[in-house]
Amino acid sequence: MLHLKESHPMITARNILFQTSHAFTRSLLSLTLRKAVIALAITGLSLGSNAVAADREIGGYVDRAEDRFVRNVWNFIKNFQGWQNVGGNRWAETQYYWAEPFEFNGSHLSYVDKMDLAYVAGHGSGYYIQTNQSTSTGVDLRFSPGYGTLAKGGDLEFLIIESCYTVVSAPEAANWWTPWTSIFQGLHQLVGFRTLSNSDNGIPHRYANKLKACGGIWQAWFSAVNEERAYASYHNSDGSPYPGFASAIMYVSTENDTLAAYAADPAGGSAGMKTWWQY
Predict the structure, then answer these.
(1) β-strands 36-40, 11-18: how paired?
(2) pTM of the entire structure?
(3) Pick from 19, 49, 55, 206: most CB atoms within 10 A?
(4) Range 47-278 classified under CATH 2.40.128
């Protein structure tokens, strides 16, 4: 079963039990306990209306390292070859590149920030995604420009990073929200892993199909990760069970976004920012 915990930086956390979905498999249930936790900063909330229905673009970006990273990205974007109707929107893969720092930084408006959803796979560490193993280059998201700022030409709503450790959440940092404010300047959600993670498995394909069925952005990711637990029962060296513990950063106003319909772009910064994580 899962437990929900809501917390504020200045408020003692409390636990609330809630029902799990039927998607959780026998392997997941056989583990001692699976939890999802939420940490919330509530100041100056502003809820927006749904975005206008339109064509939406998906980009895939691959770390030049192991072949599995190519498969990870392809197994997601292959589900969006040609326009796919999801609710009132149409989604299609329009970029598929080797990852380069300039795609996230200096030329982000022509690459990841030109997309509505970006899927990235590679090696990672806290706040960091590698782009080329042979040259030891990558992107530290703490110092990247703001994503999703329409006034400056940005468009990115959803950033999906399949890597180890990148999406730092409340268990890793007491002020978890501060480092993320640099890229959250219109960005709706960031999802990935906060621990070691295992890839080259069914997560990308499963996640894509959940999104196409109007699943929530972070909710579908957590569900895809949990369903993958059915296929192995070992633990990674950091103690996390296969395939790792998922995490996500978002806003109160964007928490229930789907590909079919999502909230207006948030103002950016830490006001109303919240995080979900598994442990």
Answers:
(1) unpaired
(2) 0.85
(3) 206
(4) no
| 221-251 b/e (C-beta count within 10 Å ≥ 16 → b) | bbbbbbbbbbeeeeebeeebbbbbbbbbbbb
Q: How far apart are CA 104 and CA 121, in angstroms?
A: 13
